[in-house]
């Protein structure tokens, strides 16, 4: 294979098949991030008690015990909501970072052959 036909075949692969592979990997990384943090499930169960820890009122009606159980359950729900909100924020930040990393990689991948050819033409002073 002569160098010109190899270069043409590489450029063809670089801008056709490779873009598709990179897009599939990028979408896979986004899906993995979504499944890892399960933001939808966290929002759906935002005010559920932490680790499903709840106290139950048992026996006859006692106002002090009823208030204690209610306060304990309210605290567990607030702690659960706080932890879920923190995880949602971390998940959104992670999703945004994966999105931006994929976007930067796509731009670098698209510019790589041009930069490589320009560096051969202009030498190392191209990067300084």
How does the SSE layout of this entry go?
Layout: H1 3-15, H2 17-37, H3 39-44, H4 63-122
Helix pairs in contact: 2-4
Mind telling me the C-alpha Rg?
27 Å
- Averaging pLDDT over every residue, what do you get? 84
Continuous helix count: 4
Classify the secondary structure makeup into a structural class. mainly alpha
Shape: rod-shaped
- Fraction of residues in helices? over 70%
**In what range is the share of β-strand residues?**
under 5%
Count of DSSP strands: 0
Query: How far apart, in Å, are the first and last alpha carbons?
Result: 35 Å
Note the main sheet. Answer: none
Tally of separate domains: 1
Low-confidence region ranges: none
H-E order:
HHHH
Classify the oligomer: single chain
Task: Describe this structure as you would to a colleague.
The chain is mostly helical and 128 residues long. It has one domain (30-126). Helix content is 78%, strand content 0%. The chain has helices at 3-15, 17-37, 39-44, 63-122. Helix 2 (17-37) runs antiparallel to helix 4 (63-122). It starts with a helix and ends in a 6-residue tail after the last helix.
